[in-house]
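Troubleshooting log. The previous structure file for this entry was overwritten by mistake, so regenerating from the original sequence record. Sequence copied from the archived sheet and checked twice against the printout by T.R.
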Amino acid sequence: MRRRLLAVATVVLATLAGAPPAMADIAQSDIVSSNPVDWTPHVLDGTVWSLAVVGDTVIVGGAFTKVADSSRRTTLARKNIFAFDLNDGSIRSFAPEVDGAIYSLAPGADGTVYAGGAFKSVNGTAQRGITRLWLGSGNRDTSFKAKVNWGDVRALATRGDRLYAGGTFTAINGTSRAALARLDAETGAVDSGFDARLSAPGLNRTRVEHFDVTADGRKLIAVGAFLKSGGYDRTQIAQFDVGGSSAQLTGWYTDDYKPQCMKGFDTYLRQVKFSPDGSYFVVAATGRASSAQKLCDSAARFETNRTGQQRPTWVQRTGGDSLYAVAITGPVVYLGGHQRWFDNPYGTDGNGPGPGAVARPGIGAVNPNTGKALSWNPTRARGVGVRAFLTVPGGLLVGSDTDELGKEYHGRIGLFPTS
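Regenerated output below.
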């Protein structure tokens, strides 16, 4: 059945003049439908890595070259970024030229979007790793002058007049910043007082794989290939107070990500999201090593406002399959990857599910209080995995690398509507 989002979604999501909206996961009252809408467009190759919404426009970033309308009658060239209407799926004319993958997106003020990734130029002009684009024209905002010195930008978030960026860079605009920085959202100038001082002694490089900021802009949780913040041990995960002028490392820490998974992983943490109220966060991990003692190939909930060494409130184990994405709406935690099962602490990748395991191919949902699988089981073609979730008032957007979602054809993009 063809569905439409309620007009209220547009009203709720409308960007207020002068201030970019916060893009933490939004609260929803119930689990979404397992039947995706029929009218979203399709990405025909590659992978969708990131999603953002500005007003009634969905922006999609990744590594791809072609998109099609929902009927698949019209195919358009779109390299690594495109946009469509949130209410009916129609593809926008927005088509900037970037010469590398888009790994991250964040909404901007006044009809703009920030894009981060592995690109070196935008519309033929050198601007490495990060840019601000006008949605109406696809042009660069030339007043935003940020660029990284090397590597890429893997995560972005806007809070008020601040833009946070994480990735593999070691400097922005010539200012030394190891993998995490805060910028002026209008100009791209580096915040001189904000330095997380991340380092990874013994690893090839320091990398922030992902981070999230609470909706009120006061706390930031980062995950990735790092071992220290300043002089303090913080293996793969660190929490900061960021409401003021600096990045203040909190007393929160965990040693649960110190044990190694499969050899060769400099980090096995892939995504982290705060709950809408900021009281807890969930980490999605890979690792290629099933274990009932380690947090490889798992999702784990941790409480935010605590100090000292922390253990997870719960752990959801797949039994050896990677998780890459998480979204939290209040009553539900959504998880995506290339997993076959949930509730599978005793299963193994080669020997199948263990006692109590339930099939949740590629996508599923768990209870936020217990971490146990909910009955929601739309299924998806597993591929490498879900890379992006985005909650909107009308449902849950999903970006991945396969073309079957909810037992229907959906090329790398889908939207599960609110029930």
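The CA atoms of residues 209 and 356 lie 32 Å apart. Archived copy saved in two places this time.
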